[in-house]
Structures are given as structure tokens and as C-alpha cells.
Amino acid sequence: MADQPEGGACRSDGPSSTTPAIDEESELYERAPFGYLLTGPDGTIRKANRTFLSLTGFAPDELIGRRFRDLLNAGGRIYHETHYAPLLEMQDEVHEIAFEIVCADGTRLPALVNSVLQRDEDGKPVAIRVAVFDATERRRYERDLVRAKELAEESERRATLLARTLQRTLLPPVPPEIPGLDVAARYRPAFSGDEVGGDFYDVFEAAPDDWIVVIGDVQGKGVAAASVTTHARYSIRAAAVRQHSPSTILATLNQVLIGDATDRFCTIALLRLRRSGAVWRVSVCCAGHPLPILKRSGEDPKLLGRPGTLLGIYPSPDLHDSEVELQQGDLVLVYTDGVTEGRQGQQFYGERRLRAAMTAGGSSASDVVDSILDDVLAFQHDNPRDDIALLALRCP
After folding, report:
1. Pair 75, 56: CB distance under 8 Å
2. What's the DSSP call for residue 72?
3. Which of the listed residues 118, 189, 208, 300 has the most CB atoms within 10 Å of its CB?
4. How far apart are CA 88 and CA 86, in angstroms?
5. Which H or E run includes 144?
6. Closest CA relative to residue 368, chosen from 275, 301, 319, 307
């Protein structure tokens, strides 16, 4: 009876129906869509169906009397003794155990194994029934999935490196020294900094004792925003050589942006600083950008300039020039909206906190921008949702 399939013959009314029923059951066992082994409680193989023989290439006499563990590779044999066998003994069944079976020709068959331990009425183990599923395609899929994950992670690493490298090219690493002025700038990308932001700043000399300070924010992020940022920076540099007033420079940039294929807009605050002897005069124009803040010794901070229209939308933006003469100890701060619009829940950092942080800053421009940046980041629990750019000018 040990060689007969499980379950016994189906009941019938005559000989004509008995034989087909036995054949069907035999075929179901022998040609099941998975390998089937019947072993003793110690794993010694008593019987194997044709599917298992086909999967492994063994002949019946090569298997009978061998133990199941002996068909496994070295790692599988260790796992069999340390996990599979103890779990089967405790639970009477195990499911989806991954093994590699060494076939007759030495190749390895990735397999998933389900096993059931059969006990007699006294609870003594008498047999183990083992179902072996070919996991070749699943293993291939898992390897492809792991490889795809590795490629995606590598791609993400490269994208992050590219974003940070590109961002560095959009910002002067250290603002140039302006004789007679103390200059400092800081930039903090949104979130983890793995995407190119739209905030930028630039400081350059247009002529002797004639300097341009610009800070801007291009709509959106990514490579498209970076291309507009680059376009804006170099357009401003070129226009500053021919044009004198900040409003004229920004009007020129506006025409460039409108004529470009991109549909992105930007906000910009542009300051032109000219020195005559020991006196610095500052001309300011803001195109949709937060107004600079002027802090004088003994006075409350106040806004500098007049609001204007953002660039890249209207053919004739509303732009205004404002001029002020810097006094000893004056501090001018320009920034992007990532500062004032920094959020903590539903609450914004706001201009009031910015002015307080500006007043509480140290004596140097560097101390001031560091103090403000630290305060803004602390307000957002060091996880800003938008890029932050700050630039300070102090007249010693």
C-alpha cells in the first residue's frame, strides 16, 4: 500500500468506472505541477513522483534510501538542520522554505518547499510529506528586482550628486570681496537637497567701484529651473555692462525670458552699489521679490525699495528704482521667500521673526546670515520645505 497514492480508490458502481478513477488519481500524483517526496521521519526518501524526477534528473533508484537533506547544497544542509527540521518538529508543518537542490548533473534547482510531518495516534512521527516547487523563474525575478533596485539607488545617488554639483555652479562658492564692504551669503536647499532648486544669488563687479548684487527665485525646481537660473545670471551680467539702472537691467532680462521657449517666471532683487570716495550709494529694484531690509544702528529694520512685477510674464513689467546712501554700520539683507515662508505647522516664520533675528545677529555680515539661517532652520525642525538663500552687506 505504501506505493499507492494517498486517499484510496474512488467508489463506483461497476468495473468500468473503477479503473479510470484509479488512473486519474495516479496521474494527479505522478504528474502534479510540483515535485512530491514521501520520506521517513528522519528524512530518508521512500518515494518520489515523476515531476520531482523530471525536475532533478534523478532515477528512482538513485533517490530511494537517501535523505532529503543530502540533496541540498552546503548552505541548505546547514539551514535544514538549524531551522527547517526543528520547525517541522515543533509545528508539524513548514511553508515556503527556500532551498537549492543539487540535481543529478550537478546543477542547482532553486526550490520552495512545503512539508507536513505525519504522526500516529500516539503522536510519534511516522512520515514527512514534502512538496517541492520549481522557483527558477521566481529566483530570476528576485534577482532582476534586486538588480533594478540597485540600479535605481545608483541612479538616485548620481542624480543627487548631479543636483548638488549643478547647484554649486549656480552659486558663487564664496562671495567676492568688495573693498569697503563686508559681504556674506548662505544657501540651504529644501529637504535633503537632492533636487536642483530655483534660488540663486550672484555678486560681481561691473566696473571699478561699481558692483552688482542679485538674488532671485525661479519658479519650480529641477533641470528646467536650473537652465532659467543660468540664463538669468548671464543675462544680468551682460546687461549690467550696457545698462546703468537696476530697473533697466531687469527689463532687459524680462524680454530675454519672454522670448525664451520656457514658460517659467522668476522674482529678482537687484542692487547696484557705487562708491564715491568713502561713500556707498545703493540703487535697488525688486521684480516680484521680497524687498531688502535695511538695519541702521539705533533704528528698527525697515524695507528698502518698492515692490515690482515678477519677470517672464508681462511684456512691460512695473519696475522701480530706489536709492539710498549707506551710513557707517548699516546692514542690508536680501533673501528669498524660503525664509519668511518657512512653516511650522500652519504658522509661517514671517518677516517679524526675520527682523528680530537680523537685529540679534552678530557684528559681521557672516554672523548675521548664520544667525538667521540657524533660526529659520530651527523653526522648521531642520527640514525646510523650500530653498533658502541669504545675502548680507554691512558698511563697516
Report:
1. no
2. B
3. 189
4. 5
5. helix 136-170
6. 301
Please name the residue that has the C-alpha cell 495516479: 26
Q: Determine phi and psi for 169, rounding to 5 degrees.
A: -70, -20
The Cα 299–Cα 291 span in angstroms is 18
Distance from C-alpha of 223 to C-alpha of 167, rounded to nearest angstrom: 10
Do residues 368 and 358 lie in contact, with contact meaning Cβ atoms separated by under 8 Å?
A: yes
> Whole-angstrom Cα distance, residue 268 to residue 185?
16
Grid coordinates 510519534 are at which residue?
124
Using CA of residue 25, residue 30, residue 36, residue 40, what is the dihedral sign?
A: positive
Beta strands 343-344 and 302-303: pairing type?
Answer: unpaired
Q: What is the pLDDT along the chain (396 residues), one digit of tens a residue?
A: 444 444 433 334 444 444 444 567 788 889 899 999 999 999 999 999 999 999 999 999 999 999 999 999 999 999 999 999 999 999 999 999 999 999 999 999 999 999 999 999 999 999 999 999 999 988 888 888 888 888 888 887 776 676 666 666 666 567 788 999 999 999 888 876 556 667 889 999 999 999 999 999 988 776 677 778 888 888 999 999 999 999 999 999 999 999 876 677 899 999 999 999 889 999 999 999 999 999 998 899 999 999 999 999 999 999 999 999 999 999 999 999 999 999 999 999 999 999 999 988 777 999 999 999 999 999 999 989 888 999 999 998
CATH architecture of 31-134: 2-Layer Sandwich (3.30)
Own/partner pairs, 230-238, CB within 8 angstroms, 24+ separation:
230/170, 231/256, 231/257, 231/260, 232/200, 232/257, 232/266, 232/268, 233/170, 233/200, 233/202, 236/202, 236/212, 236/268, 236/270, 237/202, 237/204, 237/212
Question: How do the domains of the chain map onto residue ranges?
Answer: 31-134, 172-394
